[in-house]
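Researcher: Predict the fold of Heme chaperone HemW.
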Amino acid sequence: MPSALPDGDPAPEDGSLPSGVEIGADERRFGVYVHVPYCRVRCGYCDFNTYTASELGGTSRGDYAAQVARELALGGRVLRDAGLPERPASTVFFGGGTPTLLPASDLAAMLGRIRDEWGLAGGAEVTTEANPDSVDAAYLQTLADAGFTRVSFGMQSAVPHVLATLDRTHSPERVPLVTRWAREAGLQVSVDLIYGTPGESLGDWERSIDAALACEPDHISAYALIIERGTKLAAQIRRGEVAGPDEDLHAEMYELADARFAEAGFSWYEISNWSRSPETRSRHNLAYWTGEDWWAAGPGAHSHVGGVRWWNVKHPGAYAQRIERGVSPAHSRESLSDESRREERILLETRIADGLPADVLSADERRAIPQLIADGLIEGRAAIAGRVVPTLRGRLLADTVVHRLLGA
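Model: Structure tokens for Heme chaperone HemW follow.
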């Protein structure tokens, strides 16, 4: 089942933001995230805020685009009332769930609402996630015609028994088809992979890497499987039906992926992400890692503006009720202190190839840098140039890098 919402302070029904969020906004980019919480089946490893048809409690997917449009209109008013400057959206991302379970016309309508409310910056990146079995060539062409620029396919694996363990519904043969259709529509293509599934061998993983590269994507994400409490897979491991994760095998799989992607012309830019060029990086996800502003619409969606973070009610039914009442769907929020924002910056920017400026660190924290270099966890040349950039070993031990810098 979906994970619980975090604790926080009550969020006002009118959605209003505290003073101060406008400070420095001219220097921050603005993006929009739309959460589409629908899935055909619930994958056994997933604890995202998603719902199958039987879990919707009487709400209808057919009403969803209109509900999101009303939240986006609220968002425009809230940001204007808070004194935020007018900023067109530089990135838009539809995630889930499976956004492409909705008609393409619904995704186009929600993008149109974003364009009407904030405008789109020149060269804006507009992405949707998609399952390989949820789209066809006509659907993808409709998205491209509506202004989408990018699609991210949940490939996960090319090995049938791995897909079965993950409860994925598509066949491996579907992925080359949909990636070709997307390219023919003029869309950039990303594929998502998962490694470390119970029963997956290093050979299985190499087969998935080969299959992903054969699709000639512009971008690849590869995530280690995390066993989340409350999921079907966690229960299977607890009962001894499948093996638990093997951290050493995870490391081997990561190193293999990084080497194979590099051979194929991809460069890493975040621990779990590789692109063919700087132009095909996911700019929307980079905005999360570098502390930009974004409005997130939909059940359970998390927004951030100027150090204030808030999250919506989780269930589509509760979300719909708030929207129908004309009040903010926000459940709770928190205002980050300057120190909390600094520590989050250290946590996030030490994950990316551009690195963390060393002057963000205190004098005491900078004393950890020489030993991190000596232990092969950060790049020496980058450190001399004033940036903290993880090595391959440092990417595998990212938490260790952060803990040492913060003296934890």
